[in-house]
Amino acid sequence: MYANMIGRDFILKKVAALILHTIFWVVVLFGYTYFFGYNTENINYVFSFSLFLMPVTIGTTYTVTDILIPKYLIKEKYLLFILYCVYTVIVSAFFIVISFFYGLIFLSSLKYEGMAPMTRSPFFLFIAVYFVVFIASALNLAQHNYKSTTANQELKNKVLEAQLKLKEQELNYLKMQIHPHFLFNTLNTLYGFALKKSEDTPEMILKLSNLLDYLLYQSDKPLVSLQEEINHIKDYVALEKMRFSDVLDISLHFEGVNNNIEVAPMLLIPFVENSFKHGQIVDQKLSIDIRLQCTENQLHFTIKNSVHHMISQSADNNGIGLSNIKKRLSLVYKEDYDLKISNNTHWHIVELTLKNLKTPTYEH
């Protein structure tokens, strides 16, 4: 059935091409009749002469459009193209001259005055024939250029589609790496509470279920609302508060959150995870400060955790999540982000700025 459809389409294209070519040559015939009929009323003579000139015109035209242009000009064989064009002109000129004598001998009975004025000089015959050849060649080149442009555009679209699929696959792979890391940390915390038979265990399970819901059903989306990501952070922090109890000193500041702003899911949580994982207890406190501020179409996220001034957390010690997040940032936001990781004597600091959030570079 598929083969029949292809065969039918091929036949339809051939029929359509034949009709178009027939219409073109009918127009040329009437154009010749009009051109050579200038300043004469002998329509029968003009039509017969035009009809006799048509095979010369058709043969010359198809020689140029079907042989010389595709085989030599398009393939950039310019010397051969010019050489065979000269041959074509010589042969066609010979038949044009025969057409002239046809009009003189058979149509006007060797009476030069009896010929139509526009057929008395081979010069006008050359102009008429080669003008048609030029027009047909120009149309042929325009058609070839259109096909080439269309083919190139289709190829570009296929390449872009393949690149997009690769990016999506890479993003999914990075997310898969983040998920086990996140679950490992959280389940360890829950395990500790269960061993102690803490009354906070049910609350902790509820928080974990919220996180898992976000993890399973929202993180597969290219983008989620910023508020969802913030709620995810709050649930995670709530879990860590239960685990660290009085040891944890954490502050959260979210300003100017716009409900229309979207970010990549699981984008900020690795920074939070690593603050707890690599943060150091100083003066019996693990201090963490999280700040998020939205201004126009930009997001500024800063998180810092306490470190010992003698044993500062290395800026290169970014953890599993952060190494992945750097790749995701480059894929999703390209150049529309700025990430800085630094240390001082008391703090390990991560600063992230996302730009052009209303027109993200990742399309979904």
TrEMBL record:
<keyword id="KW-0175">Coiled coil</keyword>
<dbReference type="InterPro" id="IPR036890">
    <property type="entry name" value="HATPase_C_sf"/>
</dbReference>
<dbReference type="InterPro" id="IPR050640">
    <property type="entry name" value="Bact_2-comp_sensor_kinase"/>
</dbReference>
<dbReference type="GO" id="GO:0004673">
    <property type="term" value="F:protein histidine kinase activity"/>
</dbReference>
<dbReference type="Pfam" id="PF06580">
    <property type="entry name" value="His_kinase"/>
</dbReference>
<feature type="transmembrane region" description="Helical">
    <location>
        <begin position="123"/>
        <end position="142"/>
    </location>
</feature>
<keyword id="KW-0812">Transmembrane</keyword>
<feature type="transmembrane region" description="Helical">
    <location>
        <begin position="81"/>
        <end position="103"/>
    </location>
</feature>
<keyword id="KW-0808">Transferase</keyword>
<keyword id="KW-0418">Kinase</keyword>
<dbReference type="InterPro" id="IPR010559">
    <property type="entry name" value="Sig_transdc_His_kin_internal"/>
</dbReference>
<keyword id="KW-0472">Membrane</keyword>
<feature type="transmembrane region" description="Helical">
    <location>
        <begin position="15"/>
        <end position="35"/>
    </location>
</feature>
<feature type="coiled-coil region">
    <location>
        <begin position="150"/>
        <end position="177"/>
    </location>
</feature>
<feature type="domain" description="Signal transduction histidine kinase internal region">
    <location>
        <begin position="170"/>
        <end position="246"/>
    </location>
</feature>
<keyword id="KW-1133">Transmembrane helix</keyword>
<feature type="transmembrane region" description="Helical">
    <location>
        <begin position="47"/>
        <end position="69"/>
    </location>
</feature>
<protein>
    <submittedName>
        <fullName>Sensor histidine kinase</fullName>
        <ecNumber>2.7.13.3</ecNumber>
    </submittedName>
</protein>
